Amino acid sequence: MSGRRILAMAFKEMLQVWRDPRSLAIALLMPLMQMVLLGYGVSLDIRRVPLCVFDQENSQLSRTVVQQFTASGWFRISEVLDRERGIREAMNRAACIGALVIPADFSRRLATTGVGPLQIVFDATDTNTTNIAMGYAQGVVALAGAALDANWTAAHGILPSSVGRIDLEPRVWFNETLDSRNFIIPGVVAVILALIGAQLTSLTVSREWERGTMEQLISTPVTPLEVMIGKLVPYFLIGAVDGAFCLLAAVFWFGVPLRGSLGTLVVTTALFTAVVLAFGYLISVKVKSQLGASQVALVVTMLPTTLLSGYTFPIDQMPAPIRALTLLVYPRYYVTILRSVFLKGSGLVQLAAPVSGLVLYAAVVLWLAARAFRKRLD
Amino acid sequence: MAPEEAAVLVSRISRRFGTVEAVREVSFAVAPGEIFGLVGPDGAGKTTILRMLAGVLAPDSGELRLDGIDVRAAPEQAKPRLSYMPQRFGLYEDMTVAENILFYATLFAVPGRERRERGQELLRAAGLEPFRRRLAGQLSGGMKQKLGLVCALIHTPRVLLLDEPTTGVDPVSRRDFWAILYGLRESGVTIVLSTAYMDEAERCSRLALLHAGRIQACDTPAGLKAAMPGALLAVAGTDPRGMHDALAGAPGVQGLLLMGDHVHVRVDDAARRAPELRASLAAQGFAPSSIMEIEPGIEDIFVALLGAKARP
């Protein structure tokens, strides 16, 4: 292996990328676009859920309850109804996702029995949203109940039913504000690097076949390993720029807290970039047309990365065979790593499992890629 | 020539692509310093032979030696000693003349000083000096081919393999090109090239005439001409196509070839047939302006060997 030949390959490749507007655009503009689209477009938070109110009592107390729903920020009142039939109608018009029904004897029953019945009806066509909104509603009602208790205590000096009461005080760690953005953005970074990286190198060998430069190149003493390293080095530099850009945007633009060390982030990102580029290179060696290679790279990275990396759909909840399949989806390791480094502040020691997954992947893909390139026309 | 003396030794090589036998049992040997030409129509197997010699395509059977190295067994060992210029322009069009030269020089581990001196010399010989900073893709066809040759020669190969190097090249560039090739022969470089141009074929030291993957004849241009049966008459006149058709099947006529405003007629005996042909043409209403015996060209030999169908 000759360092000078590797350098010659790398320099040549760099010149070509620099002079090819298409490659340059993929390399530098795509991450920017995707960061904006995916960073802003994907959010699992549900805020200001449209709620219809059918307040049959219309008392001071019932109005306080309604107010507490809006004051929480999770709900907004989209419509005030005057009859029960209006609920179905409003849902059909998609004017609301939920409807809050306050019975005419709400205050009276609360005063006499100590239990104030409220009904909330949800449009469950989107089960995910319904579940989340239902959780919010329970939270609001619990708060309202606590406020009533406080009033009662103030008035009577004792709690209404202080015997046998169990209090659950939930605390959420690592993402204290339960902001789904903190969870999504590290995944977005992984998806972008996986897509761009594979796209970049998927063109590098197929371009030589398509332009007819391969025949002359393989008649020289250059070795397949020199070709591979020489071609990967420039893209590794570009990948590093992209990775740095995405991570900086995550921290300074999207405000995701970075609790781990920069070193861990750099090492793991470099490792992931190597896997992604080697994967694209392998595709490029196997598919000899640029268009074909780029399409294959898109399909084999896009779908598994978005569906099976755990970036949006939690891997733990997948059926066992699919969960086994995700072990082959290398971005899953990086998604896990990024989330842990960002939110938990994990170091390389705690991340031994996903990091070794990536190392193994890098070794296998590089080995396959080095073997796949033959200095033959057939 | 003893096999160990040959710069290039090809022994019974064959290669098929699916059901097509592109090269069948081809053998030839090229001595150091020779310019060996492969001549034949498209699909005769020229490119396949050159690719196998360059070590970028494996033969199905047979033996290939280049500068004593077994190309089939150790293609990578042969590569530092050879240069191959494919038929399709193989350099990087988005790189400049100088960048392409630097790239190939580095792949062949040419030291910097040698690269500069040799590059300068070759660029001058090719008339490319003013275009060092021009992108290869913006060169004319002839300049591209000359740049290909410069890149191929930057490392002083023992064997130079050129696949139709002057196709689509203007006459001035072709002259430059051949001047460089002759210069190389002086320094002992062995050249194997394919060509579709008959005038170029005549410049080779030896020629292999290929058809349908087989060598039909292999000799010096003079040897090939001497071996042609019969003699050749050139008939000139106002309607060469009409005369060509009129002479078909005339007694003593072995072959006919339309060459521009001449008809080349291969006959068994020139002295006896010339007057006969004139009389026959006059009888059919043609007035040939001249009928004279000429030296056969490579194309005539080709036609004589293969019949008009295989005209290259």
List the helices and strands and how they pair.
The complex is a heterodimer of chains A (378) and B (312).
Chain A: H1 3-19, H2 21-41, E1 49-55, H3 60-71, E2 75-80, H4 85-92, E3 98-102, H5 106-113, E4 119-122, H6 127-156, H7 180-202, H8 204-211, H9 214-217, H10 224-253, H11 262-286, H12 290-308, H13 320-326, H14 331-344, H15 352-372
Parallel strand pairs in A: 1-2, 1-3
Antiparallel strand pairs in A: 3-4
Helix pairs in contact in A: 1-10, 2-7, 2-10, 7-10, 7-11, 7-12, 7-14, 10-11, 11-12, 11-14, 11-15, 14-15
Chain B: E1 8-17, E2 20-30, E3 35-39, H1 46-53, E4 61-66, E5 69-70, H2 75-78, E6 82-85, H3 97-107, H4 112-126, H5 141-153, E7 159-163, H6 171-186, E8 190-195, H7 198-201, E9 206-211, E10 214-219, H8 221-226, E11 231-236, H9 240-246, E12 253-259, E13 262-267, H10 270-283, E14 290-294, H11 298-306
Parallel strand pairs in B: 3-8, 3-9, 6-7, 7-8
Antiparallel strand pairs in B: 1-2, 1-4, 4-5, 9-10, 11-13, 11-14, 12-13
Helix pairs in contact in B: 3-5, 4-5, 5-6
